[in-house]
Design goal:
disordered N terminus, single chain
Length: 150
């Protein structure tokens, strides 16, 4: 992993990112569960429900993207700075079906200045099949006036 500042505080106190996850109504509303939350790494699981299936009777890509995006958010916010997506790409490899349990494993690949790159691999839990590969580009926001430094 590339870090431009060796003095980055990569403490194991992840209460800030756990609070962010607890406040994430969108991910919770889709039934996502955070399995792993570590500095620069997160794993999130979601079951494909009836409401997530499109007209081809397969998981709608938007829900797979949302799962990957949630793992991305946990991983890139684990450093303690308010970080948002600057952009993201996804490649769908195979389909997922109603009832499939999907697992998104996100890892920060590079953090430089206020920018970063995080890769997320989405697999099917039952057989490990690769469903999608996601690459997110992140940007840390400057603290707002009155915010405590992170």
């Amino acid at each position: 992993m590339t870090h431009d500042d060796p003095s980055d505080d990569l403490s194991d106190d992840l209460s800030h990112v756990r609070t962010m996850w607890d406040d994430d109504r969108a991910s919770r509303g889709l039934g996502m569960e955070a399995l792993v939350v570590e500095v620069d790494h997160a794993v999130v699981r979601m079951t494909v429900t009836d409401a997530m299936v499109n007209g081809h009777d397969i998981a709608h890509g938007g829900f797979i993207f949302a799962l990957a995006d949630s793992a991305f958010a946990l991983a890139c916010n684990s450093r303690g700075r308010l970080t948002v997506a600057a952009g993201a790409d996804i490649s769908f490899v195979t389909v997922a079906h109603r009832g499939d349990v999907l697992v998104a494993d996100g890892r920060v690949r590079a953090a430089y200045g206020r920018s970063g790159i995080t890769d997320v691999t989405v697999t099917r839990e039952s057989d490990g099949a690769l469903i999608a590969e996601f690459r997110g580009r992140s940007r840390s926001l400057p603290p707002r006036a009155g915010d405590a430094p992170t």
